Amino acid sequence: MSTRITIALGSLLVGILSLGLKYYAYWLTGSTALYADALETIVNVASSLATIFAVWLAAKPADSNHPYGHDKAEYFAAVLVGVLIVLSSISIFHATWNSYVSSATVTYSALGLGVNAAAAGLNAIWATVLIRTGKRHRSPALKADGKHLVADVVTSLSVLAGVGLVTLTGWQKLDPILAGLVGLNVLWTGWGVMKDSVSGLMDEAASEDVQDQIRAMIRDHGDGALEAHDLRTRLSGKVTFIDFHLVVPGELSVDAAHEICDRVEQAIGHKVPGAHVTIHVEPEHKAKHSGILVL
């Protein structure tokens, strides 16, 4: 079992445990804000299921129907996570309004607050694991899940502070107001997750830093070529697709040109993990005298 799938399964277990703790905290206190916090955790569980499926599908090798692999499945999962987050914010707003109108009473419970704090601590630890693993393995789904958990932790801490203020001041209306703020935070998180994921689905280019590294590898390892131009990149999960035109002297043999391409591809592969390089070789009369000049 791959590391990414193992971490995704771990997220599901953490989400279920956290949901149980948060709902228990709500049951002890009757706080709408704590209920909103627990409701958001339901989305954690649903997003974990989507992440498990996406990571499993993305790990499948390329086939005749998907010659470029299945890596983009993770972007679809991340978009789904974003949609679920937005839907949970709508549910939170609904619960907030009902609580505000009915003037529900919050009951102070040290145990309830402590249980919710424990759930927040668990999520904080696991969010760190998800984001680090997502960056290391270039997994959009794991990173999206981790960002969602970070927002969940911020929400939990804010709610805990707010419920404490409710019990100290006796101002019961503060509880649904806090729940509404939780909903806004959840909504903003969902929008951010969807925005980042849609960029991947739209074949967003690699960062300028990565493109600069690619240019440097072409300059430093393209001995025998003249120039390179029309560099293009696109991201697809853990894979970075790279293609460009490499201009060589007209009298150069096919074997010699192929050797240059192999050398450049190998250098780029060492610098950019997951690189998939395509090079179009051109004779010198095709030179544009711009782009990347080979040293």
TrEMBL record:
Domain Cation efflux protein cytoplasmic, which positions?
207-284
Q: A cellular component term (GO) from this record? A: plasma membrane
Give the keywords, sorted.
Answer: Cell membrane, Membrane, Transmembrane, Transmembrane helix, Transport
Q: Where are the membrane-spanning stretches?
A: 7-26, 38-59, 75-96, 108-129, 149-171
Q: Which residues form the Cation efflux protein transmembrane domain?
A: 11-202
InterPro entries this protein is in?
A: Cation_efflux, Cation_efflux_CTD, Cation_efflux_CTD_sf, Cation_efflux_TM, Cation_efflux_TMD_sf, CDF_Transporter
Enumerate the subcellular locations listed in this protein's record, separating them with semicolons: Cell membrane
Q: How does it sit in the membrane?
A: Multi-pass membrane protein
Q: Name one GO molecular function term.
A: ferrous iron transmembrane transporter activity
GO terms (BP aspect): intracellular zinc ion homeostasis
Family, per entry: Belongs to the cation diffusion facilitator (CDF) transporter (TC 2.A.4) family.
Q: What is this protein called?
A: Protein p34
Q: Which organism is it from?
A: Roseibium limicola
